[in-house]
Amino acid sequence: MSDRGLTIRDLRASVAGNQILKGINLNVEPGRVHALMGPNGSGKSTLAFSMTGHPNYKIESGSVTLDGQDVLALSPDKRAKAGLFLSFQYPAAIPGVKVANFLHAARQAVRPGDLTPSKFRALLMEKAETLDMDPSFLGRYLNDGFSGGEKKRLEMLQLAVLAPKYAVLDETDSGLDVDALRAVGESVNALRESEEGKETGFLIITHYPRILQYVKADAVHIMIDGRIVKEGDAELAQLIEREGYDKIREETEQIA
User: Fold this and answer.
1) Which end of the chain has fewer CB within 10 Å, C or N?
2) How far is CA 182 from CA 44, 201, 228, in A?
3) d(Cα 73, Cα 8) in Å, to the nearest integer?
4) Please, how many CA atoms are within 13 Å of residue 35, restricted to the half-sphere of its CB?
């Protein structure tokens, strides 16, 4: 049996003494898109932060492995080096730090010395072109004065530059208008079609199914109250669009 995949087994985690995750089981395979959906407060972002090592999130039990490697035994920076990427719902602004310099530092942190400065510059320009981004974007200060859409597209550029094995996109569609949402969706698809991105596994965390109109999910998982209660294909997201989460919540309570 292959160890490939971002594999979560019976994961339980708490924040400030309150248990949020109550036994999560999930496997994100290379080259596939998984959507994790659920109402606000269901634990979706807690799962993202727990996997990537946020200090405020305490793992109580369970496991997370990346292609067989124990993720929870690693420090957050080593999780990134192992190939785990997290895009934030609210990326921070850092005035004075140019986008190009930030991306170079990020690449060096994850893959030290693998590219000369000239080769990195060529890679950066190539990825910006792939994502249809104006090169002048690279000279701006990191997220300083950026619109919501620009912040999310920068995260997609960072994803393209780092080329991780598994990408967790936490509420990437949050606060975006239709045009910005389409642009982010097109960026994800462009990454998936690139040579480096074909084998990347995606976990798209979202409240609404809007982004799934632009990025086709291979599997959809519904989380309610810290548990994954229903799984299916892309049709499940459309069911949520039509009927909301209440019906699934009622079904879950009846089974319990």
Assistant:
1) N
2) 23, 20, 28
3) 14
4) 28
Q: What does the alpha-carbon distance between residue 19 and residue 241 come to, in Å, rounded to a whole number?
A: 28
Distance CA 36, CA 219 (A): 9
State CA 85 to chain mean position distance: 7
- Contacts of 124 by beta carbon, 8 Å cutoff, 6+ apart: 100, 103, 104, 138, 161
For residue 55, what is the enclosing H or E element? Answer: none
Residue 32: closest CA among 157, 159, 204: 204
Which residue intervals of 54-205 are DSSP H helices? 76-82, 99-110, 117-130, 148-162, 178-193
- Cα 1 to Cα 4, 5, 10, 11, 34: the distances in Å are 9, 12, 20, 21, 21
